[in-house]
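Intended use. Records such as the Secreted/membrane protein entry shown here are meant for training and evaluating sequence-to-structure methods. They are not intended to support clinical decisions.
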Amino acid sequence: MDFASLAQLLGVAVLVVVVVSICVIALRRSVLIRSGAIDISWRRKLRPDGSGWVLGQGRYHGNELLLYRAFSPWPGAARRLHRESLRLGRRRTAVGTEPDLLPVDAVIVRCTHGGTELELAVAEEALTGLRSWLESMPPASRSVRLFHRGVRKS
C-alpha cells in the first residue's frame, strides 16, 4: 500500500467520523426538542469579557433541570441543576462578545446553585417557565427537608 492510498483511506475514515458525529448530534437535538427541551446557554466562570458560554438545551426532569451541550454526541446531561439549590438572581445585559455568541432574544440571569455562581441565558418565555418551575416546588418538601437537617425542633 503506497502513501497516496493510505492518505485517501485516512481521509475517508475522517469524513465518515465527521458525518456520523453530525448525524448523532442532530438526532440528539431533535429528540430533546421533541421532548420539550428549551434552548439555554450557561457558564460557570463569570469572566468580564463575556466568554465561556456553553450552548445547549435544557430539559426539566422532576426536580432537576438537565443541561445538554449542543455540540456533543454524549447522550447524558452535562450539568444537573437541582430545584432546591437553584436561586435566580438579577438580570443583566450582554457585554463584550456575548451579543455575538448568544441568541438575539436571550435574557441573561445570574444564579446560584448550591453556593456556586453561574449564569443562564434563555429566551424571555423560557425564563418565565423556569421561574414557574422553581416556584412550583411543593411547600411540604421544603419543610420536610428542613426538618431532616435538624433546623426545626419540636
